[in-house]
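Exam revision sheet. Question 4 asks you to relate a sequence to its structure. Input first:
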Amino acid sequence: MVTAAAMKSSSKSQWNVNGIRNPFGYQPWNTARTFPSMFDILGSDIVVMQELKIQRKDLKDDMVMIDGWDCYFSLPKHKKGYSGVGIYTRNATCAPIRAEEGLLGVLPSPSGPPYCELPKAESIGGYPSEQQVAELGVDPALLDAEGRCLVVEFPAFVLLGVYSPANSNGLRDDFRYGFICALDCRIRNLIAEGKHVILVGDLNVSRDELDSAGATEDMRKTGITHEEYISTPNRRIFNQLIVGGEVSGERDEGRERGVLWDTTRAFYPDRKGMYTHWEQKINARPGNFGSRIDYVLVCESIRSWVKDANIQEGLLGSDHCPVFADFNEVINWEGQETKLIDKMSPPGVFQEGVRQRDWTVQAVPAFSAKRMPEFDKRRSIKAMFAKPVLKKDQSSTAHGPDANISSTQEEGPSAPDDQIGEHVAIAHQLNDDVGSAATSSKPASPGLKRKASSPVKTSSSKKLKANGEPPKSRGQQSLKGFFSKPAASPAKSTLAQTSEMIEGNSTTQNATSGSGNGDSFIAEQATRNTLISSAPSTTPMGSQVSVAEAENDGSPSSAASTSPSRISAKFAAVEKNQKSWHTLFNRPVAPLCEGHDERCKTMQTKKKGSNQGRSFWMYSTGIGTLPNPSKRAQIAIAGVPELQGQVQLLLLMVVARKTISHLETRRRW
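Answer key, structure tokens:
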């Protein structure tokens, strides 16, 4: 996987993850189990992964809809759970200008034609010629259809993420050789066109004995020499591609010189045991018996850009480890010192390291996963709660009642008036707890007001009802109304009667001889119970809402009955109600072991079945001698003391059923 560090010094890392979700089973990835947390630990701006082992239908929201990241995938077209390459780019620091999959450019582009047939301004270039493709000896469509190469272009360089075929006991030697020849041809063509190239990935080939722990033993068993070892077909092509690669005899035609620089080996030329892959079948990683087959290679022209390169053998999560390369913040670009971040996004996005334009999905290449039909219209949860940007009315003037409203709007991207009206209406509903009294009294701009589907027409003579209440709108007035049942029409009258009852009770209490504290408390308790039982319930917590409505009622009867003692009683009732809800949803406290007088520990059933995921209690102390073993058995069986009787009854029923079954079997015989 290639990762790029936060553009202070751009870092690129590559990692064969052996399954895109495989790392989440290991430390430190299993703490959060999210891709953003993984990228934060890697500290990269560009992350390239190989061997994803998924198909397009397996792409999920948590893989694609990642805030602050864009992503590109090349996945196998036919084989399931096989190969696959993915590239993630951090939007804050870089953005590709082109992206495509495949080495030969024969796959169809998002616009339809194959990549190699697109206009020069829309393609990355460097595609092998017909003669070069014919010399490969492999079907071009088959070579590109396995999801083994992903190419993205930045203004600074062309990045190739590759997962080369492995040595499958000689069964696919022709395909493997054709792939590495096609890779060599594409890279040399791109460099010949004047483009900088970076190759990262799992190439499944080591350079020499220094990069393989078992090379010496294999040479002894097969009886080959060093010259024969480095001259195997795939290793010979690879060493001719590398600057300083050891080649036995004369170089092949067209490969007279190496064009890529091995960053990791260049910084540590004599380091032994610098392996990136370990065989899992023999548990070779603890003893560091592996090979170096994962690389970050850069063309010779940008060698001075690299500041450091290394492997991260301490990061678990796969049979491979990540490899990274750090790049300098300032580079030499066409003879001038330039910030690298200026060349990592389309022209004009960054100038002197300062962003000039924001990142948008519409500006990324069409091959981006976020522009797939499955995810094109999707939004992340963070974007759903973002503050809507209102459209500035250009035609508004400084005259009229709407002048102040339009002048205070922030200028933003254009949007339909109906959509803006919906955002404004939702904002009013969230901010208005009482209803539409506040919003209906304020004039709204015609451009910001959502048109009602069926306007309510009322005559001036019917503005007020007989009881003095204002007319109610037929639409939803607040967010609370969405979750509440339709209120009955006599609700107000019921509350008024209740308040009169409270007033009558208080008058009776005052008329009686100075009632003591006990009588007063009993009367207040009865009044409160009457209020709770008589008030209509409009929400699931009906008693609490009814008390609040009774307190907020503006009628004279209710105002006269709100004495300090009665208010304190109501608040006490509300507090008690809240405590009861908290007690209901809190996790029950584990009981004490009656033998050891210790708190039991909570366990969870992991065995598959009807009880999987259920919690139960178990003694924290091991089984020992107790004064009363029967008590231990009861708690261990029941788990919850209140269920002991039910569990015992269930056991009796099971025994009875088995006995009846046994008797029926004997009767048949």
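Marking note for examiners. The longest helix spans residues 644-668.
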